[in-house]
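On to our target:
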Amino acid sequence: MPRIASLAIDFTTNVAQIANDMSKVRGSVESTLRGIKTVAATAFATFIPLATINQALHMASSLHDLKQRTDFAAESLQAYRAIAGQNTVDMETFDGAIQKLTVNIGHAREGSQAMVDAFARLGISAKDLAALSPEQVFVKMQDGFASIKNTSDRAAVSATIFGKIAGPGMAVMMAQGSAAISAQAEELRKLGAFIEDGLVASSAKA
């Protein structure tokens, strides 16, 4: 089982932990600010660097936006972002790939033969596409990609579904199969690398 251990993962974990800590103390901080605004604000700014706070809030906000666009769970998106990053797919490219997937699922449901054929190549039927959520389709696709032994064929299917830019890296990630990807997501969960759902939801109101 591959072990996720990189500076990128450490950074993501640290930002997630800070974001979650911010969420937990938000109520008490706001209460204190009402009484001693200047002192409390200064102490809070000293405790957590402003740049890191902004990064955490930006990450939470982008997760909320992507969750709304794709109907994936926020925790799942964070896990897949990190795992994709280990396969040379940066966060922006991954987010675009997931949105592209969601759009193409819609095209397949509407009868696009090219998309129906691409998903069928991964063992996903029109009935599956109609019944499953985009996230469930994504998980099922992982074993479909793992079953394609020819690298070029895998890359071609990936480019069709995820787009030409994200296709190669996503093909490598997906070819690991659902068991390996799930294991990596669980490791990230144990590391505390996920921003909590409450903070992701509240970021939309910020």
